[in-house]
């Protein structure tokens, strides 16, 4: 143990923590959005379990980071999945008494893990790159250590966003739009897109981000209006 800490590349540890802080803001938004409809007593559990599950999955992704980047359509499919998650998070909560609280808790945890897996492709590579400076024997352990240190920061960020969601419902719209923005970037950055030079420009990148944002907000808003109208007709 002492040998591990004496040979540990602390510069890489700091880089991993900073990367997770800088790139974890959108993850905190997803965690908060997924847990916003849970009872107050279950919110902390949802945040903690979802974050732990996401961290474990992220370690697995980092172990295969180089391979993942070389697979065409992976980012494209991830972006499409993130679009769906963004639209889903905009929908009204159907809180009937037939739904058990534990089911809702684990549904939120599952949403957090899936969304984090999709959104973490870019920072997974960044973290793996930071670990390259360390001893090869310590790289995976180093990544795990850095992610564990960052867990309290992600949980705190999610708790802060939850408070904003309670006070300002428009944050839900902004959060869903953020997911759309990220999904557009994932789609345009897929290795398969490289075969079309016209799509590898800065303008095309911004256009893809904007298109993802518009899609999530527009489709989410339309489906939300339809769901509310159906509820009103059922109630009437």
From TrEMBL:
Belongs to the TerC family. It comes from Caballeronia fortuita. NCBIfam families: R_switched_YjbE (TIGR03717). Signal peptide: none annotated. The chain crosses the membrane at residues 12-35, 47-67, 142-161, 168-188, 203-223. GO terms for cellular component: membrane. PANTHER family: MEMBRANE BOUND PREDICTED REDOX MODULATOR, SLL1022 PROTEIN. Keywords: Membrane, Transmembrane, Transmembrane helix. Coiled coil: none annotated. It is found in: Membrane. InterPro entries: Integral_membrane_TerC, Integral_membrane_YjbE. It is a multi-pass membrane protein. The lineage of its organism: Bacteria, Pseudomonadati, Pseudomonadota, Betaproteobacteria, Burkholderiales. The keyword Protein biosynthesis does not apply. Its main location: membrane. The keyword Zinc-finger does not apply. This is TerC family integral membrane protein.
